[in-house]
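Continuing the batch. This is chain 6 of the set; chains 1 through 5 are on the previous pages. Same settings as before, nothing changed between runs. Recording input and output for traceability.
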Amino acid sequence: MILPAVFMDESKLARVRVHLENGSLVLFESGGAFLNPEEFNFHRRLMRSVFGLRLHAPVPLWDSADSFKQSPYVDYQWPLVTKVRDFSRMIPVECERGETIAWFQKTPVAVRLRIGKGTLVFLGSPLGPHLLAGDREAGRWLLAFRSS
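Output for chain 6:
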């Protein structure tokens, strides 16, 4: 199951959790970095209560004086080792029970977590726009994910 740019209410997240507990592999690409602060805080609370993920405030990679002034790459370690450029925003994520699978510099931005019989892969850095643009590394990552 692939959920792109996701922002869901509690009942929909509960249904995703049921799928996970029954053995689904779910790719959850968070849309939280593009929400207003009130919506993001709601998203953050739900992700913590439903999946045990701790989301930190979104970090713009290019938009402000505080943003990084370099070509930002996310370093993926699973399902294959690759770098995918990100020009937008990222959500740092932590999970005590999960495994970090991608970093931006030293900041974790993606985790893999067993839930019941299934696996949740949470991306705090958008991959979808890169896929739509034909980014080769993003495409290779998605193919490896689908084969995992």
